[in-house]
Each structure stands twice: as structure tokens, then as C-alpha cells.
Amino acid sequence: MVKEELQQFLRTLSFTSIEINTILSIIDSVSFTKGKRIPDTLEGKIVQDADRLDAIGAIGIARTFAYGGAKGQRLYDSNETNNSSLRHFSDKLLKLRDVMHTRSARGIAEQRHAFMENYLKQFLSEWNFSE
């Protein structure tokens, strides 16, 4: 949704200008790839944490391979300069645990990070066995 359309929609829900600006600021700060901006508000930090938690763990692994498959990426390439679904873990996913803002998100991220590390160990063990 375009920013202006979103503002208009929020006005129809009787949000104030301050609330609309807060919501737009939160939306702008969520993305991991748009920069390392830390949201100004607790609400923004919670939304950013939720977005990042969604990218890791079992669901994050599934999303990574689904996206990679849709884009025709290889599962894994031992040449680290080539793009692969597994490389996305080191490029982004394994970094997310350390950038959580809230205590509860850090606890969830710790569990999901450990799951991903175990998954990667198993994946590489099986991959290397099959080569």
C-alpha cells in the first residue's frame, strides 16, 4: 500500500496525526535490509522484533528454502561467493538473535537460533556425506 493510501485509510479509522506518524515510522524501521535503524518507540521495537522472529527458527528455515526455490537458487554451494539458500543463513538469519530489543524476543530468538544452528550442522553433515 502506498504511504498516502495508508494515511488515508488510517484517517478513516479515526487515528490522529500523531498516531499515523508513529505507525508510519514503525513501518519504515522494520526492515533488516533497509538498514540498522532502531525504532524510537517501544511499539516500534516490538514490531521489529516480531518481524525478525518470524524470519528465524523452523518457519524461517521453511521460508528461506521456499523463497530460494521460487527464485531458482541452489540449496547450497560450497563456494561462498555464490548465492544459495544456505548462504542466507550467514548473510542474515544467524545475525538476528543479536539485534532483538525486548527481553522476551531475545529469549525466543535464542531458542530459534540454536535450532537453526543444529539444523545447519545436520544439513552440512548430510550434504558432505552425499558428495
UniProtKB/TrEMBL annotation:
Protein name from the UniProt record: HD domain-containing protein
Taxonomic source organism: Paracerasibacillus soli
Domain of life: Bacteria
Lineage of the species this protein comes from: Bacteria, Bacillati, Bacillota, Bacilli, Bacillales
SUPFAM superfamilies listed in its UniProt record: HD-domain/PDEase-like
